[in-house]
Amino acid sequence: GESVGLHLPTLSVQEGDNSIINCAYSNSASDYFIWYKQESGKGPQFIIDIRSNMDKRQGQRVTVLLNKTVKHLSLQIAATQPGDSAVYFCAENSGGGSYIPTFGRGTSLIVHP
Amino acid sequence: GAVVSQHPSRVICKSGTSVKIECRSLDFQATTMFWYRQFPKQSLMLMATSNEGSKATYEQGVEKDKFLINHASLTLSTLTVTSAHPEDSSFYICSAREGQLNTEAFFGQGTRLTVV
To answer: Which residues of A are less than 8 Å from B41 in CB distance?
Structure first.
């Protein structure tokens, strides 16, 4: 299940399940969003992006959904694998016409074999 | 994807000394570089944005005299933590972007700084 508290929210799933990670963004003018995966001790790694003129985009095993009405993004990972265990961040374009990645809070995904 | 190399990956320094962290774009020209700081189990906090050949733009609350940023070429930016204190211990991450409008930023592998 998912827990939210003072620490990083955590989502625990079983291998093979689908995972859904949510993110609320703050700037209604943001027009470009990216999901990043960060493994322990490493820099963020690009997963998938979406522009504000779309509400859904699919990649390999991942889908990003964008709901501009409520300023909400989600990342869906199909058939989650232990290698997907990491912290996932959404980032929004906060620089007007010039992209400056501004990161959300992050969610720790733990995949149990 | 494009490669951003950050060096060193780990550094331990004594209080009062200065530490320089390098960020290089290996296969593209980085018109803009970003420096972030990340505490354990927290998100990345933007410290500053630097454009090649001009002064960095610092975020509110970031001391520009403490965190010196130089972006002298299109492939290299440096962050120098001056007169380091234990509270400066953190994970520092750089990011580089080619182009100005809505393009992806590529991240370095981060530098773990420990000030003793």
So the answer is: 7-8, 108
